[in-house]
Amino acid sequence: MPASYSYDLRTKVINAIDGGMGKTQASRIFQISRNTIDTWLKKRKYSGDYQAKIGYQQGYNSKITDLGEFQQFVELNGSKTQQEMAEAWPEDISDACGELC
Q1: 37: Cβ–Cβ under 8 A, 6 or more apart, which residues?
Q2: Staple 50 to which of 12, 40, 85, 97, CB 3.0 to 4.6 Å?
Q3: CB 30, CB 13: distance < 8 Å
Q4: CA–CA dist 54, 4 (Å, integer)
C-alpha cells in the first residue's frame, strides 16, 4: 500500500483552494488528482480535519514476534531446510514462505 500524502501537502492544497485557487489548477500544480482534493475537502466538511487515517493495520501480522527467540532458533537449526525449520518451529508456520513469516 502506498504511503499517504503528508499533512503538510494536504494543508498547502487546502489553503490554496481556500485562497481562491481552482481544484483543477491545484491538482496540476501539486500533481495530485482532483478526486483526492475532493476527498480531502469532504473529509474536512464532515470531521473538521483532513488528516490521513492512522492506526489501521498494514499488511499481515508476523508469526515471529520475538526476534531474539528467533535468532536463537536459527542458530540451533540453521543447517536444516526451510521445511524442516517450519516443522521445528513451536507454532504452525508456513514452509512455503520465503522468510518464515
Answers
A1: 13, 17, 23, 26, 27
A2: 40
A3: yes
A4: 10
Q: How far apart are CA 90 and CA 36, in angstroms?
A: 46
Set of cell numbers at residue 35? 478526486
d(CA 32, CA 5): 9
- Please say whether the beta carbons of 88 and 97 come within 8 A: no
List the chain pLDDT tens, one digit each, 101 residues. 567 899 999 999 999 999 999 999 999 999 999 999 999 999 999 999 988 887 766 667 777 788 888 889 888 888 888 888 888 888 877 766 555 44
Q: Is the pTM of this model over 0.70?
A: no
What is the per-residue DSSP string for 49-76?
--PPP-S---SPPPS---HHHHHHHHHH
DSSP 98: T
Cβ burial of 10 (10 Å; 0-12, 13-18, 19+) is: buried
